[in-house]
Amino acid sequence: MRRIIYFLLALACFGAAIGYYLWNKPHADMQSAKTDLVVEAAALFGEFDTDENAANAKYLNKTIAVSGKVKESTKAEDGAAKVILDTGGDFGVLCELDPLSQHPRTDFPIGETVTFKGICTGFNFDVQLSRCVEVK
User: Fold this and answer.
1) Taking the alpha carbons of 92, 96, 25, 18 in that order, is the dihedral positive or negative?
2) Which among 68, 80, 126, 85 has a CA at the least distance from the CA of 106?
3) Quick one: pLDDT band at residue 9, thresholds 50, 70, 90?
4) I need a surface site. Which of 38, 94, 108, 133 has the fewest CB within 10 A?
5) pLDDT confidence of residue 136
């Protein structure tokens, strides 16, 4: 009986150590993250609009670089900046700037051509990219 209690206590300590490590694990640096795919904003939106399942298989949870013209640029009250890249229609590619990275600028004039690198999180009217950083 005593061995079982010691075993369970050791197992609980091991689980707590793993949990502590995962909780404090640092986030990946998006500036130096490897880009899996490079695509134009209109082509990316077109793929999601045509066949969302195939586009999810190709892009979802991957780091992609997207180029396009700025359609809209906003800042929330908490300082989070979002940029929508134009795709020629009502919707576009929404790039949420990474709150964990330093950005040389967060204001993007409408019509400027920019490239953002971020993680594709899916399609909800706009194609969503999170943790974006500007690529020069």
Assistant:
1) negative
2) 80
3) very high
4) 38
5) 80
What is the three-class DSSP state of 100? coil
**CA geometry: angle 92, 89, 96, nearest 5 deg:** 10
Asked if residue 54 has pLDDT above 80, the reply is yes
CA 2, CA 95: separation in Å to the nearest integer? 56
Burial 120-133 (b: 16+ CB within 10 A, else e): bbbbeebbbbbbbb
Q: Are 49 and 93 in contact (CB under 8 A)?
A: no
pTM score, whole prediction: 0.76
| CB-based contact 91:46 (threshold 8 Å) | no
**CATH superfamily entry for domain 37-134:** Nucleic acid-binding proteins (2.40.50.140)
What are the strands, taking DSSP E only, across the chain? Answer: 37-40, 63-75, 81-86, 92-97, 113-124, 126-134
